[in-house]
């Protein structure tokens, strides 16, 4: 459902909504779901089309890394016949399409928010590429992954090398011939490296400090164990790292082919070449930090530590399960390699998998910290009537995922409703 431009400008002054939601992904649509239930008028403003990112920024073999049962968007839980499987890209889109149809949100698509700022008399002015609006309250649900990170060093690489960011990667067949350097070993980097490796491409991987975890342990998916241990209910304020957990890189694992570990050491025994973090490019050679061994060891330490916490839970509750085990490395690097000649290695493509930067430059409100990140407590900012939704660890681990968005959206919708009720009584 779309709001027409003629409607928004017919009165000659900005059309007013009780709430404007910026972003039409699963977060914005979840907020719309609860506002519709409460009978609160609102508008969702989406720069592209609803759930655009899932359709345009995922590779062909992409699948969920969390089991299907964790797909729990509000009013629309997973109802397929494989709750412990991992939906592939087309299945995820079908799930989202069902959610979109069920919510039937009032959405203005292909509309960019250019500016949003508080008004002196209260409420907000929201300027968009389709005209201006006002709102009593604003929910920023545009996520935190806006600008792909590519180092300036990339400008000095040979023109014949094709460079793409992880959001642009589609398949091994879509890349030029030759070796592929994947930079970064977080969830996207590790899975893209695996995709290329399984297709028989020669892969060079610059390994960062991302942790890893087991897919299955002691007879169950690790996610199932952690859910029973209430890890996914832990609020950010209860986490040992407190707000620092928001800076953590996600563990790499995969749901591909029914789910399995991603073991970079095993890939190395099969011909993938591993290096430490990419540092620079000089005289035709890539330079790497000699920290490959440390990064692999740290990732394995996290893997074993998570499994050890599951062991303690099993012992404490007397649960019958297969015996405990500890991961033992199947390969270790010898002398650290700190350089790689691009031409000699035959590298034709570099895939940058080093993340995204948030871009809230359009939001003119005094809520940002020194790193340009909006401060909040469970999505509620210090600016009256301004909220955030869909960010990683907004409240819990699931906040930026299908599993936790309903709880966060429902919480904020209740606050929005309460504020509107108070305003009505005061009027």
From TrEMBL:
Q: Which UniProt keywords apply?
A: Monooxygenase, Oxidoreductase
The answer to whether the entry has keyword Oxidoreductase is yes
| InterPro entries from the UniProt entry | Auxin_biosynth/cation_transpt, CHP04046_FMN-dependent, FAD/NAD-bd_sf
> SUPFAM superfamilies from the xrefs?
FAD/NAD(P)-binding domain (SSF51905)
Molecular function as annotated in GO: flavin adenine dinucleotide binding; monooxygenase activity
What the entry lists under PANTHER family is as follows:
FLAVIN-BINDING MONOOXYGENASE-LIKE PROTEIN (AFU_ORTHOLOGUE AFUA_4G09220), FLAVIN-CONTAINING MONOOXYGENASE
The name under which this protein is listed is Monooxygenase, putative
């Amino acid at each position: 459902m779309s709001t027409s431009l003629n409607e928004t400008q017919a009165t000659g002054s900005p059309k007013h909504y009780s709430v404007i939601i910026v972003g039409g992904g699963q977060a914005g649509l979840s907020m719309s779901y609860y506002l519709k239930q409460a009978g609160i008028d609102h508008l969702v403003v989406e720069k592209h089309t609803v759930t655009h990112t899932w359709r345009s920024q995922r590779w062909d073999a992409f699948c969920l890394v969390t089991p299907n049962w964790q797909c729990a968007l509000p009013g629309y839980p997973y109802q397929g016949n494989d709750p412990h499987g991992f939906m592939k890209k087309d299945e995820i889109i079908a799930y989202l399409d069902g959610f979109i149809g069920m919510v039937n949100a009032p959405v203005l698509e292909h509309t960019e928010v250019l500016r949003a700022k508080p008004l002196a008399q209260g409420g907000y002015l929201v300027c968009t590429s389709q005209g201006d609006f006002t709102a009593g309250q604003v929910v920023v649900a545009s996520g935190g992954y806006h600008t792909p990170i590519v180092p300036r060093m990339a400008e000095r690489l040979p023109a014949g090398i094709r460079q793409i960011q992880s959001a642009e990667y589609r398949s091994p067949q879509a890349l030029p011939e030759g070796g592929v350097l994947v930079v970064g070993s977080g969830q996207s980097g590790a899975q893209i490296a695996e995709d290329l490796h399984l297709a028989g491409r020669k892969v060079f991987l610059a390994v960062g400090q991302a942790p890893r975890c087991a897919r299955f342990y002691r007879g169950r998916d690790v996610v199932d164990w952690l859910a029973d241990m209430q890890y996914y209910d832990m609020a950010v304020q209860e986490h040992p790292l407190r707000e620092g957990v928001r800076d953590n890189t996600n563990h790499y694992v995969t749901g591909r082919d029914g789910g399995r570990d991603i073991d970079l050491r095993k890939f190395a025994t099969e011909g993938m070449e591993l290096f430490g973090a990419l540092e620079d490019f000089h005289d035709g050679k890539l330079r790497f930090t000699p920290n490959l061994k440390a990064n692999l060891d740290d990732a394995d330490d996290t893997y074993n530590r998570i499994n050890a916490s599951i062991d303690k839970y099993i012992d404490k509750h007397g649960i019958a399960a297969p015996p405990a085990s500890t991961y033992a490395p199947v390969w270790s690097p010898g002398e650290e390699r700190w350089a790689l000649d691009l031409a000699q290695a035959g590298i034709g493509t570099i895939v940058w998998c080093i993340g995204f930067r948030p871009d809230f430059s359009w939001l003119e409100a005094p809520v940002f910290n020194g790193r340009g990140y909006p401060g909040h407590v469970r999505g509620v900012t210090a600016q009256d009537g301004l909220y955030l939704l869909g960010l990683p660890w907004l409240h819990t681990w699931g906040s930026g995922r299908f599993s936790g968005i309903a709880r966060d959206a429902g919480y904020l919708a209740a606050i929005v409703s309460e504020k509107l009720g108070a305003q009505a009584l005061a009027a």
